User: Which sequence fits this backbone?
């Protein structure tokens, strides 16, 4: 909550800033929780141009906002505007959740890594991240957040495979530890012995090219996760399920990453359950 006097503290406002922002599923998620828990508040789409981001964030306290989510293209730019950034946000190099604290200070964090790990635990509870190599396809912002979370969870080795090798090398350099790079052209061969395969690219998303990957060398006991959630069952997940692998779709990450923000703004730890999943899917 902000420290601004004269604001009706019984009604709590939050939202999502992006440009564009009409596509965001966040209002559907938070709106469902607000209704479920009978909270007097709102969660709005806030279209903000990149050049207007600083002013929009700084205006949150006086406008009575408890905070906001940030989506493309604001996740990195916001780091130079807010007053405080969590360790996770600094390591990832991007933030997606902002809280207005006492005195109108803006604190920010990144909940994407948390959302991914929570989704894994929910859908693949038997998976032991410490027991084998992880293959991560992609080297963008989502990959960075997921790799940081996997490192913190004890993954012994993270192999990053990206269509642009230089970008993968930059991520490995920033991560340090036991992360490494493999060539995109040789991606299928690196699946042997993997414990977890994660697609963080847009390949397989509706309207995008399909991920071309032969997974025959992937161990049958490995888990396969795809952060794409439109469609919910990507070709990668369908192929993995057909051969007996445990699969984790991208909807869980979307839902679980929203938990910390909702709790911080509205004071209630929300539940990710079947009713929420059905609501978000129905909302389209």
Assistant:
């Amino acid at each position: 909550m902000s420290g601004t006097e004269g604001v009706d503290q019984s009604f709590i406002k939050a939202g999502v800033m992006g440009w564009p922002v009409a596509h965001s599923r966040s209002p559907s998620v938070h709106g469902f929780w607000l209704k479920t828990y009978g909270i007097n508040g709102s969660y709005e789409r806030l279209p903000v141009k990149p050049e207007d981001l600083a002013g929009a964030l700084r205006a949150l306290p006086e406008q009575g906002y408890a905070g906001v989510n940030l989506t493309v293209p604001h996740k990195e730019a916001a780091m130079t505007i807010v007053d405080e950034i969590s360790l996770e946000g600094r390591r990832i190099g991007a933030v997606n959740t902002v809280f207005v604290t006492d005195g109108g200070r803006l604190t920010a964090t990144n909940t994407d890594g948390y959302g991914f790990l929570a989704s894994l635990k929910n859908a693949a509870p038997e998976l032991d991240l410490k027991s084998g190599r992880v293959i991560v396809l992609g080297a963008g912002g989502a990959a960075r957040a997921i790799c940081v979370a996997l490192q913190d969870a004890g993954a012994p080795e993270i192999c990053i495979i990206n269509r642009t090798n230089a970008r993968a090398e930059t991520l490995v350099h920033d991560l340090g530890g036991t992360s490494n790079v493999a060539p995109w052209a040789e991606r299928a061969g690196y699946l042997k012995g993997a414990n977890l395969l994660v697609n963080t690219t847009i390949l397989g998303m509706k309207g995008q090219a399909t991920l071309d990957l032969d997974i025959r060398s992937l161990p049958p006991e490995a888990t396969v996760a795809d952060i794409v959630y439109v469609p919910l069952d990507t070709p990668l997940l369908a192929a993995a399920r057909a051969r007996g692998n445990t699969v984790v779709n991208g909807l869980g990450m979307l839902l679980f990453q929203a938990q910390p923000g909702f709790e911080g703004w509205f004071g209630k730890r929300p539940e990710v359950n079947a009713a929420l999943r059905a609501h978000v899917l129905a909302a389209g």
